[in-house]
Design goal:
This protein has a single domain, classed as Creatine Kinase, Chain A, domain 2 (2-Layer Sandwich), CATH 3.30.590. Helix content is 45%, strand content 11%. β7 and β8 form a beta hairpin.
Length: 404
């Protein structure tokens, strides 16, 4: 039988360095008609036998979103290599009349699932309508994967501490979304409306009611400073209490279990005790804002399009990895810690989030030279701060102006 705590402890070991790996998702649009569905076959045909010098792996999300997953490396070389790969993909798609989206939420098309596998079928059944379909088919994100370094728990807590400020600073997915109200990160709003047993922050408990995202003042938006618990124990509890999505049978088939049972009920559901493989697969069906996998997946950043994404990677990296940057920005970040919903709703228009983001960007800009960042990357971070952070404007504001 799987030892859940031992497995959880192992998720916080294995990456003692300072490398970063990045996974970029992009919506794909027809240049002439952004509302046109782009079949995955059209995208793959446009890419043909494309060779990527940075060795990124190309995959697809259920709605046809393209994902580039880059190998880990030091910050400067990892960003430079992935940018070259993005440029190659962008050029190949342009030649076929396609373009990479600039938003984290599709504002042109209704969700349409193109990939049908046992995993995606189970996910659709478990997550339900309309938010499950929106998440699977209509969202795009930047995922930053970081080594845990010599002090895994410190980096884990920093990833949560700075999360709401970073969500606000990079909010880039304004509706339309199927509920009343305006959110600058509609992608985050979609996630907040899903099953909280698999999407709430680890250690926060199930504080999001189903049906719609919480409003300001609900439990999910209340301050929740990180560091209250022991991260492996928190993760073990999360694994145990999260709902089962599917069970792999002995013959290799998959059985959907969208009936409310938790992983702790595995024996009751499957008729046998869970193995380590069962537990490891269950972990891949959980989507908290930060997920431990022997390294740390930071999953809360909206897609920014093919040009601005290095800013999000560089700022996130330095705040979590650089001790001086984390110390300099921690005080202002603590004032908005745990306020994920408010960050997604208001972005930098809320003064406390603007103040936290200004401190974060200043600390990151000071730290980047210490990590070998080239002048062009530092300039990108500075320009982004001048354009968006200091005036208190999330990038979603530009997208809203374009639709008026």
């Amino acid at each position: 039988m799987a030892d859940v705590l031992a497995y959880a402890e192992g998720c916080f070991t294995g990456s003692p360095g300072d490398q970063v790996g990045v996974e970029l998702e992009f919506l794909v649009h027809d240049v002439c008609d952004p509302a046109l569905t782009v079949p995955i076959a059209r995208t793959t045909g446009a890419l043909g036998g494309l060779t990527l010098p940075g060795e990124s792996v190309i995959t697809f999300e259920p709605g046809g979103q393209i994902e580039l997953s880059a190998p880990p490396g030091p910050l400067p070389s990892a960003v430079a290599a992935l940018q070259e790969d993005v440029d190659r993909v962008r050029s190949a798609l342009a030649a076929a009349g396609l373009t990479l989206g600039r938003s984290g939420l599709d504002g042109h098309r209704r969700p349409l699932r193109q990939l049908h596998t046992p995993r995606y079928d189970a996910m659709a059944a478990c997550l339900g309508q309309p938010y499950g379909a929106l998440m699977m088919c209509s969202t795009a994100s930047i995922q930053v994967n970081l080594d845990f370094g010599a002090d895994p728990f410190t980096r884990w807590r920093r990833a949560h501490l700075f999360g709401p400020a970073l969500v606000a600073a990079f909010a880039n997915s304004p509706g339309p979304v199927p509920w009343f109200g305006s959110w600058l990160s509609g992608r985050q709003a979609v996630w907040l409306a899903l099953d909280p047993s698999r999407t709430a922050p680890v250690g926060a408990g199930e504080r999001v009611a189903g049906g719609r995202p919480p409003v300001s003042g609900d439990g999910a938006g209340a301050p929740d400073p990180p560091g209250r618990g022991h991260p492996p124990a928190d993760w073990a509890d999360y694994l145990q209490t999260a709902k089962l999505m599917l069970v792999k049978e002995i013959d290799g088939s998959c059985r959907q279990t969208a009936d409310g049972h938790r992983f702790r009920d595995f024996r009751q559901v499957a008729g046998r005790p869970p193995t380590l493989d069962d537990l490891a697969y269950h972990a891949t069906t959980l989507f908290p804002p930060v997920r431990p996998r022997g390294f740390m997946e930071i999953r809360y950043l909206d897609a920014l399009g093919p040009v601005a994404w290095p800013v999000a990677v560089a700022v996130t990296y330095t705040l979590i990895v650089d001790d001086a940057a984390a110390t300099a920005a921690a005080g202002d970040a603590l004032a908005v810690a745990g306020q994920w919903a408010e960050a997604a709703r208001c972005g930098l228009a809320a003064p406390a989030f603007r103040q936290a983001a200004v401190a974060a960007f200043r600390a990151a800009a000071d730290a980047l030279p210490r990590w070998g960042a080239p002048p062009n990357l530092i300039d990108q971070v500075t320009d982004y701060a001048v354009r968006f952070v200091e005036p208190g404007r999330s990038p979603a504001a530009d997208l809203l102006l374009e639709t008026r």
